[in-house]
Amino acid sequence: MAGGDDVEEYNLPKCLKCNEGQLVPLSDYGGQGAPVHYKAWVCINPVCGFNIKIRNGDIYLNEPITPGGMNTSRSR
């Protein structure tokens, strides 16, 4: 790529619920600050809202999605 930018290209899976959006992976940090990759997958179609999340080894489907700006940050 020109300019030396290293950009990986991904083929993201299509959402099987709406067949319009793609599922994008989301990551987070665990309780001890270690990164948790692919903790959730969310459909980018705002009308669909499909999501699948892993929390403490359990799988959750279609939990309510709230804007991140509503959360308060924690000091580490």
Terminal CA distance reads: 37 Å
- Widest sheet: strand ordering: 1-2-3-4
Structural class: mainly beta
Unreliable parts: none
**Total beta strands:** 4
Note the run of SSEs as H and E. Answer: EEEE
Specify the helix fraction band. under 10%
Mean pLDDT: 83
What Rg do the Cα atoms give? 15 Å
Rough outline: globular
Report the sheet with the most strands, covering strand number, pairing sense and barrel closure: 4 strands, antiparallel
Q: In percent, how much strand structure appears in the residues? A: 25-35%
Overview in brief:
With 76 residues, the protein is mostly beta strands. 0% of the residues lie in helices and 33% in strands.
Secondary-structure blueprint:
Layout: E1 23-29, E2 35-43, E3 51-55, E4 58-61
Antiparallel strand pairs: 1-2, 2-3, 3-4
Notes on the protein architecture:
The protein has strands at residues 23-29, 35-43, 51-55, 58-61. It is mostly beta strands and 76 residues long. A four-stranded antiparallel sheet has the order 1-2-3-4, with no helix packed on it. β1 (23-29) and β2 form a beta hairpin. The model has no long low-confidence stretch (mean pLDDT 83).
Can you tag this structure with a few keywords?
four-stranded antiparallel sheet, mainly beta, 76 residues
